[in-house]
Structures are given as C-alpha cells and as structure tokens.
Amino acid sequence: MRSIFILLAFFYCVLDGNAQLVNAPSGDNQICEVTQYLGSIANVSVKYSSPGVKGRSGKIWGSLVPWGMEANNIGSAKEIPWRAGANENTVITFSHDMMVNGNPIPAGKYGFHVIPQKDMPWTLIFNKTHSAWGSYSYDANDDVMRVEVQPTQGEFTEWLTYTFTDRKPESTVLELRWETLAIPMNIALPNSNAIYVSKFKEDLKGGKGFYWQNYVEAVNFCVSNNTHLDQALIWAESAISGTFIGQKNFTTLSAKASVLEKLGRTKDAENLMDEAIKHPTADVIQIHGYGRQLLNSGMKGKALTIFEYNYKHHGGDWPSPAGMVRGLSANGKYKEALEFAEKALLIAPDETNKTFLKTAIEKLKQGKDMN
Q1: Quick check: 14 pLDDT over 70?
Q2: Arithmetic mean of pLDDT over the chain
Q3: Going from the N-terminus, what domains does the chain have, and what CATH number goes with each?
Q4: Are 329 and 356 in contact (CB under 8 A)?
Q5: Is 134 within 8 Å of 87 (Cβ atoms)?
Q6: The model's pTM
Q7: Contact (CB, 8 A) for 114 and 85
Q8: Strands of the sheet with 122-127, listed across from one edge
Q9: Residue 315's pLDDT band (boundaries 50, 70, 90)?
Q10: Which residues of 101-132 are buried (b: 16+ CB within 10 A; e: fewer)?
C-alpha cells in the first residue's frame, strides 16, 4: 500500500520541473548509469533505478516480479511488463545502429521492459517511450523490438545491476543481474569499419584535415582492417601531395605503398618503398622496422637487402647491426650473423637488447637461426 500512495503522490503533485526540490530516490532505489564503448566511437548506456533484495530471497521472481504480464490498475495499460528496474523507465541508449541478439535496432533511446516467464525464455522489450514512470502507461504499439532470452543462474546479487561482460571491439554482452538470475543480451556493432571511415571523413573536413599525420592515421586504419582501400589511396595521396598539407617523406610514402600492396599492386608498392627508404627523411629505425616487416612476411632475401642498406647508409648506428644479425641468420648465414651479433652487443642501448643478443649469440654458435 505504501508504494501505491507514493505513486499517487507522484501523479497528483506534479510541479514545474524547475520548481521541484531534489528528493531522495523513491524507496531508496538508487539511480545508476553504466556505459560501454564498442571500439572508441560507438557506445551503449543503461540508466536505471536499482532496488535491493532486502532479505526477500526466494520471493523476487514470480512474486515481487510476477511471471508474465501483470494486471494494471493505475495507468492506461491493462496489462504491463516488468520495468526491469524501479521508479522511472529503465533507459537503454544506443549511439549507433546496432544488433541485439542478431536483430537490428536503430540508434536512439528506448524504454526497456521485460516479460519474465517461469521455465520459459523471457521477452526483452525495447519501447519508443523512454520517459515514463514504470510500465503503467506501456503501449505495445510503441515497441521497436522484442527478443527472447533464457535467463541463467549466477552468484547472488543484492542490488539489481546492469553490467557488461565479454567485451570485444565490436560486441559485448549486457546482463541484468538480480538475486541469483542473470538475463543476458548480445549487443554487436555492425559495419564498424564504415563508422570509423565516416568519422575520419568528417574530421578531415575540419581543422584535423590540415595535418598530413591525420591522413596517414586514416590510411593505416584502412590497411590494418582491409577496408575502404580506394578511399585510403585518396587519403595517402593527400598526405603526400595535398595542397598546403602534403609532405613527401618516409611515413607518407610508406603509407601509400601499404595501400598499393593491399590492392595487389605489388610492383608499384615495391617501387614506392624503395623511394621511401632512400628519402632523406628515412631514419635508421624506420628502415629497420621495414626490414623487420619483410622478415615477418617471409621475404627473407628482400629483408636482408634492406638491413644491408640500412647498415651501410647509417654508419652502423643502432639498431642497424641488430638488423644485420636478423637478416643474415634468417638466410642461414650464421657465421656472418655471429660477427654482427658480437659487434651489436658492444653498442646495445639497454639490458633488454643485450639479453636478446647474448641469446642470439648462443644460438648462432650452435648453428641455429636466432629469429
């Protein structure tokens, strides 16, 4: 009865929002909010009021929260689902179009409701109305989506809690946990690459578009994810020769070469990388990194050629002798590699590299590849 009086007071004592006093949450059901990002742009958030079990173990499901739709004698709806929390609507917000249990849902805010069922899958409801008090004015005509899930048994949770588990760059699981039940839903971000590329396009139209480094960053994203390569090639060219911003240097040339490689234009990519490593901006570390990249791709002969060029043109500066060790060893030239390893050990800049070289020396002495 006390809850009914509180609710009636709420309906009849409506004040102008700017004139209301700040009150404690009804029934001490604290307001909570949790947000999970999928990658660095898209996110899902849940805002809800959190009731406690308060000694009612065994009396939550099927009692305090009844099975099925509940008869309603307060608001406009004849039957209502559970509000999936307390007080005002539980609100789930999707920043972008997403998938819930494989079903598409548009970006936006939704009132979240649940129809619990004994020994059956539960129905999760996403409703257009997200500013109501509870489910008392629930209208099924405003449902945007319904999905069915099977609750699972879990550890005891005193306070009704929404939490994100199994977090991945493009998906997560949102769970409602209370007492000993967990109600999971799988949330996924489709076409995430397109979202990022769209954001890059938007950003590069503004102040960020005056820096060639940002074009290279966009290119690297596309190459790493093997997506929107035609657009990446346009950005790569802008980084090299764009009006006011373009700069021809090792970084911009190698970025374009990486796109050409992905597009299957291998010869063009090789020619551009040859230009990149011979460019005055190419330093010993950048060339060494390219050699390591070739080595990791199984191009042992080409890698050794790059390591030899680096050692010759940078006077043996670190890490060029270490590159010679790797390149010679990969090509089975263990005796020569051992000589360079002993030279490199003398100029190694830190203990990590010294330890690496000492281990390499032992392997090379045994006639083994140190890579």
Answers
A1: no
A2: 92
A3: 22-188 (no CATH), 192-365 (1.25.40.10)
A4: no
A5: yes
A6: 0.80
A7: no
A8: 30-38, 42-50, 86-94, 108-115, 122-127, 143-149
A9: confident
A10: eeeebeeebbbbbbbbeeeeebbbbbbebbeb
